[in-house]
Amino acid sequence: MKLFPIDSPHLQILPKSFTTQDRQQFLMNISLSRALRVQNRHPKLAPDSIKSTLSYLGGGAYLVTNLTIVSRTSRYTAYVIVDALSDLTWIQCSRCNPCFPQRNPFPAERWSSFTRMSLDDLRCAPQLYYNGSCGFRYSFGIGRTEGYLGKTTFMFQADGPGEVGTNQYYPNIGFGCGISNNHFPFNRRLGAENEIAGVLGLSPGPRSFINQLDMVIKERYSYCLAPFSPGRNSASTTTLSFGDDAKIGGDDERKVQTFGFRPDAHHFAYLGAILVNGVRLHIDPIIFKLDDLYYRTGFFIGLNSPLTFLARPAYSAVRRAMVDHFKQYGWLPMERTPVFDLCYAQVISGNQVYPTMTFNFLKSPSDRGEIQFIIPPENLFANIEIRGIGFCLQMLPTDGVSVLGAFQQVNHKFLFDLKNKLVSFIPQKC
């Protein structure tokens, strides 16, 4: 009887296109999944899906969800920003210095079920030494944090067969403990009442929730973002679903559309063109090409930013097209606005209309066919009260990477299939 490694070419389990990194990630996922299966032998601890509620905080500036950490005698819950561009989940821990204002940093060193992660743990990637254990560094805008990785038990609300609303517990889940935290924006907008503790990363990677809970998540998640309404505070019916519950479907009028993306590259998508009023803008596609080394260029599908950011040459082309559209009504942009770049002190009425805008995504690098993501006017423009009533374009220029923001994804169901590297979407009332 011969024994073959699971990644042996004789078994033909892995695709021939797998790189060394892909192969190592595959083996690590199996190791972590089997470890969790041993720890979760009880059927009620092995659901087929996880659900989490998404909420808006800080006037819609942050899209957050709850993370709950438990021990035998205690429970810790805090909001974390959902970030599809990162593979790391981290929260601010007690004894931090400096710290951003927060009601209750996680008391890691006093938590009975918490242990630090060693450098030889499979999830310690990249290997970064921090005071005798595995460390990490992370950037969020101008914010910077560093600290150590640890392991403890997380609790989620899960919907498995016949187990609606059952609390599900997952031990030995790795995450980052932020100790040195600088320049995070929570203080400026939320101040001392800040409830945001850190970030939940949705990109795959050795230390990500996506890979650690692969047996449940199955490399699939979906969401449908409800519109932000200041009147309802932070309440939202938006749900983030993982695993078998991450589904999408259409009908005769609404067709599911699918295009390729790179989950291993922070949800990079192949953007082929931008259209305004059906006219393809003159934009050099090189500015949307992925910079694989430093991630300084590329177009990504994100949730951590409410607004869409476009590389400055692309934004300039969009802005010119918008200005030309409103010129037909004799309107000129406002000269100075506090937040947005393009605003009008006008109200659409009569036969006046907003321009249409479309992002054309390539099906894949080899299939140059295009899939149209149409942004409806209510997701494109925001009403404002600056020197009267007006509206602004909910996009901004950037000298960095381009990101499709959360507001532009409102009332669309998205399904991310990380295994097959596909994004599916459909217009839907969320």
UniProtKB/TrEMBL annotation:
Family matches, as Pfam families: TAXi_C, TAXi_N
GO molecular function: peptidase activity
Record flagged with keyword Protease: yes
SUPFAM superfamilies named among the record's database cross-references: Acid proteases
Residue ranges of every copy of the Peptidase A1 domain listed in the record: 63-426
GO biological process annotation, one example: proteolysis
GO cellular component terms listed in the entry, alphabetical order: extracellular region
Keywords assigned: Hydrolase, Protease
Family under the similarity heading: Belongs to the peptidase A1 family.
Name of the featured protein: Peptidase A1 domain-containing protein
